[in-house]
Specification:
Layout: H1 5-16, H2 68-74, H3 89-97, H4 127-147, E1 164-167, E2 172-175, E3 180-185, E4 207-209, E5 214-217, E6 227-233, E7 238-246, E8 252-254, H5 264-277, H6 282-296, E9 305-306, E10 313-314, E11 318-327, E12 332-341, E13 347-348, E14 359-364, E15 368-369, E16 375-382
Parallel strand pairs: 1-7, 2-8
Antiparallel strand pairs: 2-5, 3-6, 4-5, 6-7, 9-11, 10-11, 11-12, 12-16, 13-15, 14-16
Helix pairs in contact: 1-2
């Protein structure tokens, strides 16, 4: 069998471009679009259509069916289902009927991936927002406090106490207008601990001087107040103090302006002189006391006459002013004197200050004096004959 070269060339060209051209008279059934996720049905087999060779200058002739190459060229071609899934059926149908054009759908554009969601974090509030929030919170708290009943504050039990400032480390000196019978502290008072062999002059406890009219007191270092202290005086009066210790020098506390007074040594000497001046029999002492008592009561015994008085005598803290004087014309004289302090500050005195070698009896009506409250002093004096 003889093959035409021209027809063989045209068949080869037609086989090399199967996807470019199709037969104009051929019709394909395009399946409708399939929703995503569903199963696409099997595509129907298209009707066979003769392939059309591209237009050439020379008019080609159709190869006979008996030729193997021509039969392969004229065999119907089936398009895959995926290649026509996006074709509009209406357009395909219209193209089939108008000029033999076929719309081929291009692959759809890829969908943009969703942007990753950024982690959302609360941003810091602005300054005005902070101020507004603070003001709102403050109003809320104030409203809540106004609605709630306020609890009564506990009263300070020491609010009305008038404290006495003292030192918490140095010795403090207290001066009283009369002798002290005893001093008492509340339980747990911060006093220094005393040794077993502590004597009466050990500063670990109150030390008394000047006839127990002066007291030295030391507290434990770092003591806190108020510290209650009660002082019992010889007259029976009680002084109550609330000590307020603080760092600093020792304090000097004068109760009712009391002065220091005579020392214990001076008082001891006065007692010794009084004992030497009264070295008489018990009968004579009792007689002298009885005689002086009559003058103190205003009963002047017979044989005693009034005499002129002398000038006042000034001492360190007081004056002794003679008021009256009596004599029996022999060895006995009786003196009435007034002991007056210089001002309103009380001064402590005692009978031992006025004893002497010739004094046989003394009567003193008080031991604390001021300018407005002097003491009355009676003296019985024995004057030897050779000195008259």
């Amino acid at each position: 069998m003889r093959t035409n070269p021209t027809r063989l060339f045209l068949a080869v060209v037609a086989l090399s471009f199967p996807a470019v051209t199709f037969a104009q008279s051929g019709g394909f059934i395009v399946p409708p679009p399939t929703p995503p996720g569903s199963t696409r049905p099997a595509a129907a087999a298209p009707q066979p259509a003769p392939a059309v060779a591209p237009t050439r200058t020379a008019a080609p002739t159709t190869a006979p069916a008996s030729t193997p190459v021509a039969a392969a060229a004229n065999a119907p071609r089936v398009m895959p289902a995926d290649s026509v899934s996006g074709v509009n059926p209406a357009s395909s149908a219209a193209g089939a009927g108008s000029g033999g054009l076929i719309d081929i759908a291009l692959p759809s554009a890829p969908k943009p991936e969703a942007a990753p969601v950024a982690d959302l974090k609360p941003s810091a509030p602005t300054v005005p927002a902070q101020k507004a929030a603070a003001a709102h919170a403050k109003r809320h708290v104030a409203a809540k406090e106004a609605q709630e009943p306020k609890a009564a504050k506990p009263l300070d039990p020491y609010a009305g106490i008038v404290g006495t400032p003292v030192s918490d480390a140095q010795l403090n000196r207290f001066v009283f207008p009369e002798a002290v019978e005893g001093v008492f502290f509340a339980e747990g008072a911060p006093l220094p601990e005393c040794a077993k062999d502590a004597g009466p002059m050990d500063p670990c406890k109150p030390v008394f001087l000047n006839g127990r009219r002066m007291m030295l007191l030391q507290l434990r270092a770092g003591a806190k107040g108020p510290i209650q202290m009660l002082v019992h005086l010889r007259s029976g009066r009680m002084e109550t103090m609330n000590l307020m210790p603080s760092p600093g020098p020792g304090a000097i506390v004068r109760v009712n302006g009391a002065e220091d007074g005579a020392s214990d040594t001076r008082l001891a000497e006065g007692k010794a002189n009084a004992a030497a001046a009264t070295e008489t029999t018990m009968a004579d002492s009792e007689q002298n006391i009885a005689l002086l008592s009559r003058f103190a009561k205003g009963d002047i015994p017979g044989g005693f006459d009034s005499e002129n008085v002398g000038a006042p005598t000034r001492y360190e803290y007081f004056d002794v002013i003679p008021m009256a004087q009596w004599s029996n014309g022999a060895n006995w004289r009786v003196h009435l004197m007034q002991v007056r302090a210089f001002g309103s500050q009380p001064v402590a005195i005692n009978a031992g200050l006025f004893r002497g070698e010739r004094v046989r009896a003394i009567a003193l009506d008080r031991e604390t004096i001021t300018e407005q409250a002097p003491a009355q002093l009676y003296l019985l004096e024995y004057v030897p004959t050779e000195q008259q």
